[in-house]
Amino acid sequence: MAAEITQAAPAPGFLPLPCGAMRSDRAFTVIAWGVGLVGLVLPLGILGFLLIEGMARLSWAFLTEAPAGFPLGSAGGIAPAILGTLALVAIGLGVALPLGVAGAIGLVEYAPEDSPWVRVMRFGAECLAAVPAIVYGLFGYAVLVVLFRLQISLISGALTLGLMMLPIILIGAEEALRGVERSLREAALSLGVSRFNVVRRVILPKALPGILSVTLLAAGHAAGSAAPVMFTASVAFARGTPALDAPVMTLPSHLYYVVSEGADLEQAYATALVLVVGLLLANGCAALLKRRLAR
Amino acid sequence: MTATEPSAVPFSAQRVRGRFSDRAARLASRAALALVVLILATLLLLILREALPALGSALSAEGILRADWAPLADPPRFGLAHAVLSTLMVTTLALALAVPIGFGIGLFAAEFAPAWLRHVLQPCLELLAGIPSVVYGFFGYVTLVAWFERYGGMATGESLLVGGLILAVMVLPFIACTSAESFAAVPRALRESAHSTGVTRVHVVRRILVPMALPGLFAAVALGLGRAVGETLAVLLLAGNSTALPTSYLDRGQPLTALIATELPEAALGTAKYHALYAAGLALILLTVTINSVVWRLKARVMRHGG
Amino acid sequence: MDSLQLLRKDTEVEIATAAGPTAFEIDELTAGYRERRVLRGISCCIPERRVTAIMGPSGCGKSTLVKALNRTLELMPGGAVTSGHVRFRGADLHGPAVDPRAVRRSLGIIHQQPVPFPMSILENVVFGARFHAICRRAEREAYARLYLEKVGLWTEVKHQLHESASRFSGGQQQRLCLARTLANQPQAVLMDEPCSALDPYATRRIEEHIVELRDEYPVIVVTHNVGQARRISDYVLFMVDGQLIEAGPTAQVFEAPQSQLARDFISGRFG
Ligand SMILES: Nc1ncnc2c1ncn2[C@@H]1O[C@H](COP(=O)(O)OP(=O)(O)OP(=O)(O)O)[C@@H](O)[C@H]1O
Ligand SMILES: [Mg+2]
């Protein structure tokens, strides 16, 4: 009791912070909110711009007709470009998805967990995924178009896009497989069944949302890239349904040709909108799948 | 009810099914991996092979590093100097803008934003990252280029400045997301105990968050750099595609990627031009692989901190 | 052969013996993960058709031992048996002609966390049995019913056989895992802390099943719970730091523990 009395009574209320600190803190908070809003306004602004300008020029005919007019693309539609892009990505996925998933299974399920090979492969795949799209164009041109004499064609472009998607899918599938709980793998294997059976019945179903999600992301990335198909697959104009050995139109390269000619951009707004909305749908699905996985 | 009886066959006499499928699956997955390695190797070797003729004399006055791009001169010169300089200039501008803003957004998302805003911000950034390069090029063309043409008093609106500005928007989401992740990876408990000492937020950010997130922030910059250097379509449409050596940001220029995209369709096989373009491609590969190794190191360090 | 017998020379622990046939013979077993040696020379016998509890402080290697007993240890990164033998009914687990998957199938294991597979309840139960061709596709339902009844789940799930098991409670999931293991028609059942994730009521149900299992299988149960060991086990192995320091019939170990460590553990003073 005596000790308590001899101690100085604390001032009522809380001790104030240094005045300068408070002011800089407030300024800091304001700046942070300002910058944060940039991250909000910029994407919405760009999307809004494309939506408003594009919707005004979009029509059913635009989606279903071939381009026309002079310079090309100033009239008509973009149907062959849509078909071409879909065909390129679909065939590319046909190559990249099985290879990527099989490779990922090899890395996660059939390689010793601490093997240096796994790290090397992963590093290689990450490098490949980081290589700019145009380098894939160079490679596709030198190997597929020139060396294998596939010419500028759907198949050359699809394989080039497949190569570009492969490392992305490999890394994503590897992460998805690794994300499956150890305990699940252990419990299934402890029943004495073969590893392949465990992968097929237990691990793959669990990892499927993740694999699909990264596949959609890779496909969206490929569908939006003009650089790899510029020398391998795309031409300014192609008619009819895409054929394996013929060049095709693609949405991004069509947009590029129209803009680089620079004469009549009216239709380009609608083309850009179609491309962006398509990709956003793919990315949105990917994000939903990922979120489902997180739950 | 024989089924309920434990099986009497001792395991030493049991043959388990699935040996064949297991071996086949192992083989198939290894083959897939081998194919990936093969592709990686051919990609490197082939581009190296096509670039090699241009590398031999790279440092001579006529070589790719010092000469200008003069395909019509006699003899023609295929120097990459203007392209390297253009790439440097647009990348520097893009990062100078995107790094501070990106870090700011990352910090905002990790520290300041209420949960609902974070959930809006994240998809918005993903949206920004999902817009393809060519659409950014188009967007820049109809907004910035048009604006500069009308108000900037420039004959043509395309310039390294416009290219750099749009590039900044393009790499922003990558820098913002990566830095947000590394800020968020700083352990909650550490942050809370720092706050509980009653210091201001600035103080916590400067003394705790930034030092802890530093490797991740470096990784974010490196990632943004890799993106900016490799972007093709946007700079192709916006930077002006001029083979002259740029002297200011208002000049037109031609980054490496734009040079390749412009010239490859007209480069005959095996010509000096062709080889010079593959040398440009090789430079891009080396740069991205270097950047990736740095990111790899940094990520390992982040994980050690986080774990 | 005497059923429980500690063959360790250095610690001088004398173990009382009980008559009865032996299921597992463990002989100077050492095992671990890469450089880390976890089991350092375990020797003992585990009797047929009895419940043997393995107890000991956390990290002493109980899980490692159980995993070594059905060759799932080698599935862990770096995990391996480095020397010694395990024989089940006379057959060496690590014999040259032995397929590890046959061992895993014959010596079923239940883990601490129940792990339902991402498939229907029915498929969960017959997952291993279908693979090992114990049950045909046409008789899946009847077969699954047999084992679901055995673990007392049938009445609870008979109308949702084709639904996912992920909405089950922890206790139901653990019983499902037990059914899944039993459907494999194992010759012994190993359990690694099967109740540590369950509430007391679910624990009681699992304990009842363990006691029932004793009529058909040798059962090994790792447990931290002294009371549980007392309730369900016939024999107790007591491990500390990768070594067996005490073993014997449950009543004897609990009433007159020979070592100070075991005495402290049982009285709750450490562990
Ligand atoms: N996968 C692994 N890799 C490396 N070391 C491991 C691994 N699993 C366990 N260990 C180590 O082996 C020792 C024994 O582990 P084990 O899981 O067998 O102990 P336990 O007696 O089951 O403990 P608990 O009561 O906590 O379950 C521990 O010190 C642990 O650190
Ligand atoms: Mg354990």
Please, could you describe this protein's structure?
The complex is a heterotrimer of chains A (295), B (307) and C (271). Chain A has 295 residues and is mainly α. Chain A has helices at 2-6, 19-55, 60-64, 79-108, 116-130, 133-147, 154-179, 182-189, 195-224, 227-230, 251-261, 266-294, and strands at residues 67-68, 75-76. Chain A has one domain: MetI-like (MetI-like fold), CATH 1.10.3720. The mean pLDDT of chain A is 88. With 307 residues, chain B is mainly alpha-helical. Chain B has a single domain (69-306), classed as MetI-like fold (Orthogonal Bundle), CATH 1.10.3720. Chain B has helices spanning 19-55, 81-112, 115-130, 133-151, 160-184, 188-195, 201-230, 233-238, 256-263, 272-306; strands at residues 69-70, 77-78. Chain B has a two-stranded antiparallel sheet. The model of chain B has no long low-confidence stretch (mean pLDDT 86). In chain C, 32% of the residues lie in helices and 25% in strands. Chain C is α/β, with parallel strands linked by helices. Chain C has a domain at 13-112 and 190-267: Rossmann fold, CATH 3.40.50.300. Chains in contact: A-B, A-C, B-C. At the A-B interface, helix 2, helix 4, helix 5, helix 6 and helix 7 of A face helix 1, helix 2, helix 3, helix 4 and helix 5 of B. Adenosine-5'-triphosphate is lined by residues 33, 36, 38, 58-64, 76-78 of chain C.
Class of secondary structure makeup of chain B: mainly alpha
For the largest sheet of chain B, list the strands in their spatial order.
1-2
Number of domains of chain A: 1
Unreliable runs of chain A? none
CATH fold call of chain B: MetI-like fold
Secondary-structure class of chain A: mainly alpha
Give the fraction of residues assigned to helices of chain B: over 70%
Summarize the structure.
With 307 residues, chain B is mainly α. Chain B contains ten helices and two strands; from the N terminus they run αββααααααααα.
